[in-house]
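Researcher: Next entry in the queue.
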Amino acid sequence: MSSPLRERRRAAATGEILDAARAQIAEHGPAALALRSIARTLGMTVQALYHYFPSRDELITALITAAYHDLADAVQAALDAPGSADRPRFVVAAEGFRAWAVDNNAQFQLIYGTPLPHYRAPSDGRTTAGASRLAAVFIPELFGGFTREQLARAEFPPLSPALRAHLAELPPEAIGALPPPAAALFVSAWGQLHGLVTLEAFGHTAFLGPLHSEIFRGAMHNLLTDTRRRIDGG
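Model: Structure for this entry, 234 residues:
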């Protein structure tokens, strides 16, 4: 049985390894992540590092898991912050998402950028739990106040039987709890939100300079208005 002291030391060492990995990603990009370089930075051997993370995949999984949860925490903190009541909560949540992406660009690229070569996510759901948390935050802010019957009648181009069946079979902790038309509408809205943030995070809208936030806020207001208009009673 591990002693509390040993557990604290392990937690501290694990935290140092993760911090060193984040620093490497921030400087060289996610694809350049290398265990030997991290071990060298920390003054430890690769064999010692393997004691905490048996493989590169395990380290990447830990980084992705932590990034998703950090992002979900940031979005929730934005919603809970004083002064947020003057804007629609969906817009507040979207701006919290954008702010985290801008402030944590390397981690954003890790979870939403080009898939890392040779990395395979585990099947235990560790890397998707945070993404599910995000959906659980955004869905009520986008669809709050509507009944399931209204969501089932959401205006969306007719779904093929295959797509309708697929959306209906998704796990409830993701978007599977939504009726298929609303699930399709949510994916569409999420693509617009995420697309604007990705363009900024990857430097494709640098021509906007400091005016990104104004463009983004206006787009999120329009997105919310359009989405709710497409739901019966919106």
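Model: The two ends are 58 Å apart (CA to CA).
Researcher: Noted, moving on.
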